[in-house]
Give the backbone structure.
Amino acid sequence: MSIIIIVSLFLLVVFLSFSDIGNFYKDKSTGTQYITIDTEKIRILQKGKGKDILLIHGTPGFIGDWNLVIDELSKKYRVTAFDRLGHGYSTANKYNYH
């Protein structure tokens, strides 16, 4: 019986490691959304419906750089913007910039 429990727990851990369960959450106090990739927390914003548009800010930069266009674009498209590693509210724990 205990071997069945151990194997079941192992399979559950393996399944969770290959899924996105738990990697996406929303900070309810600010409405900010994050995804976790490896050890990094990436802030994202997604708004609208339709064909996708991905907005990538420059260096330096952050999601706020797109405030003037996101509302207009989101009327016809699904707009996604994110804070690159080490920019805005995204972390950069494993990365050094020169």
